[in-house]
Amino acid sequence: MKRTSARQGFSLPELLTVLAIAAVLLGLALPDLAGLLRARQLRAATDDLFGAISLARAQAIARNQRILLLPRDAGGIDWTQGWTVFADRDGDGAPGAGDDILSVHEALPAGVRAAFAFTSPAAPYYIAYNGAGRSCGATGSATARWGTLSLFQGGAIRRIKINMLGRARTCDPERDANCDGTAAPG
């Protein structure tokens, strides 16, 4: 007859030691995870806004008409409240019942801030494209309108720069040359 050992597992002190080591390692990793989450949120917000700008330009070319991208807040100045891409059929500069709404984006995550610096700094802040895919004014397709939209979270910054031809690019001022823009809002 064979005898089996009565011991089949870990003792309580062994389990407590492993849990203590895991807790210490988790405590060291949590600050990095929070920073990683903030960086990912900022990157996702930048990608979403860049995608909306690309959609507006592509639809302006495809439809051969002016397409606007406008912040969703009542004053048309706060990009963190989300945005709307639309064909302004009634010419009032705001999305409405008679307009073709192409895309709507909800508010950005808490902590993400935005700053707008374009050639025409007057509110409402908008981005418009004419049928040739060039950036333009909301009321006239001939006037070029270019500038920088900056997104901030913590100490990180991402910028979307639109040149006078309407081409957009993203950049990170910590890595990329010619990535200047406005300072973080206070």
UniProtKB/TrEMBL annotation:
It comes from the Bacteria. Transmembrane segments: none annotated. The keyword Nucleotide-binding does not apply. PROSITE patterns: PROKAR_NTER_METHYL. Keywords: Cell inner membrane, Cell membrane, Membrane, Methylation, Transmembrane, Transmembrane helix. It is a single-pass membrane protein. It is found in: Cell inner membrane. One of its GO terms (cellular component) is plasma membrane. One of its GO terms (biological process) is protein secretion by the type II secretion system. Pfam families: GspH, N_methyl. Residues 45-166 form the General secretion pathway GspH domain. Signal peptide: none annotated. NCBIfam families: IV_pilin_GFxxxE (TIGR02532). Belongs to the GSP H family. This is Type II secretion system protein H. It comes from Massilia litorea. The lineage of its organism: Bacteria, Pseudomonadati, Pseudomonadota, Betaproteobacteria, Burkholderiales.
